[in-house]
Amino acid sequence: TIYPQQPTMASIIDNNSNFCSLEEELKEEARILKQILNKQSEKMEVGKMLTEEEQKAIDAKSIFVGNVDFGTTIEELEAHFKGCGEIKRTTIPKDKMTNRQKNFAYIEFECADSVENATVMNGSIFRDRKIVVTSKRTNKPGMGTQRGRGGFRGGRGCPQTVVVKYVYVNAPAPRGRGGYRGGRGRFNPY
After folding, report:
1. H or E stretch at 22
2. Minimum mean pLDDT among 14-18, 61-65, 128-132, 133-137: which range?
3. What is the pLDDT of residues 22-40, one digit of tens each?
4. Residue ranges of domains in the chain, CATH in brackets
5. How far apart, in whole angstroms, are the C-alpha atoms of residue 37 and residue 31?
6. C-alpha dist (Å) from residue 32 to 26, 65, 81, 87, 114
7. CA torsion angle for 12, 15, 17, 20 (degrees, to 10)?
8. Could you give the CA distance from residue 23 to residue 43 in angstroms, rounded to a whole number?
């Protein structure tokens, strides 16, 4: 039996492209990869971290819209607030786990005067819901990110309170298990 010959890599390159050798194709791929990396670095600069002053300036021109219907689109929200001023950006955050949009949104206007116009719409009806409109607050770095042990004694970052269950006035406190005869003794500093 005669088996057909499998085409070699050199014949595939020669037949399917304008390159004559593997070296030329590798150089072309390297050039294309460099272009892709340059485009990615430009995108990274666009999404760079803002300074605190820049963030405050953006937040001064932004509003928070609460109690937004889950099926709301950005276009519907912008149409509701278009009379307040020119809208620069509208954001409806999504849940990271379920990828379902949350029930609030942020709208950034071109000028800060539009924020005052938009806050007048607090309590207006949007998609059969009474929405909450307030000016956006600036997040402070590190707020709400307490980790590990904190508070009084080994808590989880929450403030701790000491609760006294019993106060023994005229009698000594009951001794617990063990006592002086072994077993589980208890430390008694007094």
Report:
1. helix 22-46
2. 14-18
3. 888 889 999 998 988 887 7
4. 52-135 (3.30.70.330)
5. 10
6. 10, 44, 44, 37, 45
7. 90
8. 31
